[in-house]
Amino acid sequence: SSRVVEIQSQMSERAVELLGLPEDRACLLLDVGCGSGLSGDYISEEGHYWIGMDISPAMLDVAVEREVEGDLLLADVGHGIPFRPGMFDGCISISAVQWLCNADKKSHSPPKRLYRFFSTLYTALARGSRAVLQLYPENSEQLELITAQAMRAGFTGGMVVDYPNSAKAKKFFLCLFVGTSGTLPKGLGTECASEEPHQAKFTNERTRFRNVKGKSVKKSRDWILEKKERRRRQGKEVRADTKYTGRKRRPRF
């Protein structure tokens, strides 16, 4: 129906907006669960290129009939994203990723399928880019399962919730960063709220930097100096080391 098309278009527009793409060049985007290519139409309108993946031959047939501008791939994203490293400048997905939480076959393990999807997606995205996945979670357990596997795969970021106080307009966008932790965008319709309980931020604390007692040595002075040195060797611009490097800040309040 036209209403569905309209909602799809709005969500595609919002997802692309949350990607924060550079305005001065055309980008190559991955559209996960592209269906008949409605979100792709918006990407094309914005002057970007896209490749769409979907598990449904029928939907892709419709996309072909509609003569969409993107390239199409019939594939199950639970088996992974089969593209070379760093190929995409961003990824969007409209109403698709929650399906990975279902075990449709005896052999399907949702956590494994989600991890396979996120880890291969992480590789296929250029450093510094984002993935914005709009999804309809059935419950908070599903949200936690999805975000936990995204973190395991190396993403940072979190959930942006638009119109959290509206039953009808409420929309979840999992906004993921690759290789840099950006600031999580604000959800629409949250201006009136003073704090942001609806934005499930997950930290970029990766668990591998733990010492014996389980205390994190990540963000320690040594860890930071080592990382800065590594980045200098890669020829990146890094701030000079000072006596403040690695110092704990006071909590806000």
What does this protein structure show overall?
It is found in: Cytoplasm; Nucleus. GO terms for molecular function: rRNA (guanine) methyltransferase activity. Keywords: Cytoplasm, Methyltransferase, Nucleus, S-adenosyl-L-methionine, Transferase. InterPro entries: Bud23-like, Bud23_C, Methyltransf_11, SAM-dependent_MTases_sf. The chain has 253 residues and is of the alpha/beta class. The protein has one domain: Rossmann fold. The chain has 6 helices and 8 strands. It has an 8-stranded mixed sheet, with helices on both faces. Helix 1 crosses helix 2 and helix 4 crosses helix 5.
Write out the strand line-up for the largest beta sheet, numbering strands in chain order. Answer: 3-2-1-4-5-7-6-8
Number of helices: 6
Give the terminus-to-terminus CA distance. Answer: 50 Å
Tell me the CATH architecture.
3-Layer(aba) Sandwich
Morphology: globular
Proportion of helical residues: 25-40%
Indicate the low-confidence ranges by residue numbers. 193-212
Tell me, rounded to a whole number, the average pLDDT.
86
Topology:
Elements: H1 2-19, E1 28-32, H2 38-45, E2 49-54, H3 57-65, E3 71-74, E4 88-94, H4 110-124, E5 125-135, H5 140-152, E6 156-162, E7 171-177, E8 201-202, H6 221-233
Parallel strand pairs: 1-2, 1-4, 2-3, 4-5
Antiparallel strand pairs: 5-7, 6-7, 6-8
Helix pairs in contact: 1-2, 4-5
Summarize the structure.
The chain has 253 residues and is of the alpha/beta class. The protein has helices at residues 2-19, 38-45, 57-65, 110-124, 140-152, 221-233, and strands spanning 28-32, 49-54, 71-74, 88-94, 125-135, 156-162, 171-177, 201-202.
